[in-house]
Amino acid sequence: MTIGLKVNGSRRAVPAEADAPLLYVLRNDLGLNGAKFGCGLAQCGACTVLLDGRAVRSCVTEIGSIGDSEITTIEGLGSLDKPHPLQQAFIDEQAAQCGYCINGMIMTAKELLDKNPHPSATEVREALAQNLCRCGTHGRILRAVLRAAQGNGKT
Ligand code: FES
Ligand code: FES
What we know:
Layout (H helix, E strand, L loop, with lengths): L1 E6 L2 E6 L6 H8 L18 E4 L2 E4 L12 E3 L12 H8 L9 H14 L5 H7 L10 H14 L4
Parallel strand pairs: 1-5
Antiparallel strand pairs: 1-2, 3-4, 3-5
Helix pairs in contact: 2-5
Bound molecules: FE2/S2 (inorganic) cluster (2 copies).
The site of one FE2/S2 (inorganic) cluster has 10 residues, from loops.
């Protein structure tokens, strides 16, 4: 069957079953590889995307459940030429080591900063607590999110 999705501002039609995980459709059918497959069990956060602004784990989100909700992937935030302020802050703080977790960190931080533009360090830690980084770059990730938050309201 064909299922329609709204992704990064465009309408897309994909040949897939309703129970197909969104992560597989994004990566395999739509060529959006920013979201990563980590655990496949909603445990690590590497696959995080936004659904109507809410961070969700795309590895366990069936595309048949999405309906008309707007999907935003990290490709929809910014580009190499024009990175989103969160992406720029992660670059400035050199927050990635292997980089595998960074999609989930940025997308989860995006949800946080949209709701709370000036979070405390504790609030950032709490928001990212369920996103795993096996490289242990949590300190830099925290600094990157706080750096992005500092810029909020200045543009
Ligand atoms: S791959 Fe989805 S939470 Fe780990
Ligand atoms: S930078 Fe490697 S898992 Fe986080």
